[in-house]
Design a protein that fits this description.
Layout: H1 3-18, H2 21-33, H3 39-64, H4 75-83, H5 85-100, H6 107-117, H7 127-139, H8 143-155, H9 157-174
Helix pairs in contact: 2-3, 4-5, 4-7, 5-7, 5-8, 6-7
Amino acid sequence: MTKNSNVLALRIAQILEEYTAKEIAEAISTLRKCDTTSELLTYLAAATKPSQASNRRKGSAAEKRPKPIDQVTSKAVRDLEKTDPDKYQLLLEFDSLLRQGRLLETNDAVRRFGEFVSKDFRSRTARKDNISALMTSLARLDESELRKSLKRAFENPTSQKSDEYQRLARFLMSGN
């Protein structure tokens, strides 16, 4: 190694130490705009990219985290926002109550209500998936049928039936 290459290496190390990756990237961008190219610019550009890529990866991982169930709204409900604001408002509130567990508390209750609403309702394993399928079925109804169905959900006959079956099962198993 010659004396000049040692001096240059020290200068490069000093630049990398004194300036942030963002500042170096901006400086490189400015030099490239002036049609200045060199191996040094290529090296410095490559040296600053890994930290930027890792920042991007960290941000995208945070974006991929699923939202809690009570902060989600079914797609069928969101699709009604512009086309039918009245149905949208009804279903938005109903969807929220279901996801918070304040109405049709069990997955079985959601499934039974879905079967009541539509013969085409296909039961899912997860409660959140049953809620989305139920919202899709409800969104297809006209507003008067929708109001009748929602009224029935608030009366909660599906939960009562389920409770009766639960009591019968407990009686048969324990004799109480």
